[in-house]
Design goal:
Layout: E1 2-6, H1 13-22, E2 26-30, H2 34-42, H3 53-64, E3 69-71, H4 79-89, E4 93-96, H5 103-106, H6 110-134, E5 139-145, E6 162-168, E7 174-180, H7 188-206, E8 211-216, E9 218-220, H8 246-256, E10 260-263, E11 269-274, H9 275-287, E12 297-301, E13 304-307, H10 308-319, E14 323-326, H11 343-347, H12 355-367
Parallel strand pairs: 1-2, 1-4, 2-3, 4-5, 5-8, 8-12, 9-11, 10-14
Antiparallel strand pairs: 6-7, 11-13
Helix pairs in contact: 1-9, 4-6, 6-7, 8-10, 8-12
The structure holds sulfoquinovose-uridine-C1,5'-diphosphate.
Family: Belongs to the NAD(P)-dependent epimerase/dehydratase family.
Domain NAD-dependent epimerase/dehydratase: 3-291
Organism: Corynebacterium phoceense
Length: 397
Amino acid sequence: MKIAILGGDGFCGWPACLYLSDRGHDVTIIDNLSRRAIDKELGAESLTLIASIAERLDAWYEVTGKTIGFRNIDVAQDYDALLDFLRAEAPDAVVHFAEQRAAPYSMKNSRTKRYTVDNNINATHNLLAAIVESGLDIHVVHLGTMGVYGYGTAGMKIPEGYLDVMVHTDDHGNIEQSILYPSNPGSVYHMTKVLDQHLFAYYAKNDELRVTDLHQGIIWGTWTEQTARDERLINRFDYDGDYGTVLNRFLIQAGIGYPLTVHGTGGQTRAFIHIRDMVRCIELALENPPARGERVKIINQMTETHRVRDLAELVAQISGATVAYVPNPRKESAENELFVSNDTFLSLGLKPTTLAEGLLHEVEEVAQRYADRVDRDKIPAQSLWTKNQRAGVPELS
Ligand code: USQ
């Protein structure tokens, strides 16, 4: 399959590119390298030393003899370049990762809020409009988020995108309808993925675009079989207060003897998926597109749910780390249950990597290996959801 990967230099995009190339697909990365620019802006580098995009692609060719193309295009800003690319290359599918993906970064200030909305919504809409203008039949696979649903429970498992409801009509009749599951985003970033959903629904209806929207949980783990083949292929690993996600942060905190930063009571339950399962899910989604004229195919891309404090206790048990309960910088429920349906990927053959089997390995592999690159000042979460809060800076033991 000929596949263009928007955002192919990022944390999910890069391992997905290597995996799909390894599986024999013809892959081109489209990326404006914005994530590397945000590293500089925040003064927070990836824990792993990532090679330049040119070095990455040369290394992949050296190691496998396979070529991955690269175009530096800002898809949110340069519509014409995107359209020209689609017309010239006519990919079978576009995987769309080209969005600012950190909730804390999106909540820092009005500039980062506006950047997140402008970048994410324009990127998605430019892609959809360009596909229509190109006249090509291109399957869009988009990386969405579990966070579009919020993290509550309505006495049922969160379904895969749609909720069947019965509407009581004015003339005392009943009409059955299938609607998008009510959204309840918890950050400006998550809200952009809610807005994306509506853009997809509209273009699937009006232009019969084929769209798959993957509602992904929190990634944990850092490496895939492909990124481990050469030091220059290594994936990025974010541990800072803005981009680091919870379990990966706990792993590196454990590795350097920093108290694990549990926000609030740690009663937040979230959905998780290992990075190696993520790349497989992208492939499964590409292999199973919706038909033209069908509604957007929404798949929940997660394998387990866990409570934050349970994760902290588990990591502490394995590593001997201490746990620090810090004031929660976010506005979110202190405690929640979360039950999620993930039948589609399981029925398509996904074999989940479980936390129980993979966690110890990750701690040893990454956290201890790169511990000396950690800047401890970058660990506390400083981005506040409401500005009268105080950031949670744990006491060091
Ligand atoms: N948390 C802590 N301590 C920390 C960091 C986070 O207790 O040091 C808590 C947060 O308060 C939150 C939970 O852990 O309750 C998850 O935070 P996170 O930073 O791991 O994840 P989140 O902000 O939700 O965003 C991440 C990705 C995003 C993706 C989302 C999937 O950055 O791109 O969409 O996970 S989901 O959470 O399922 O919506």
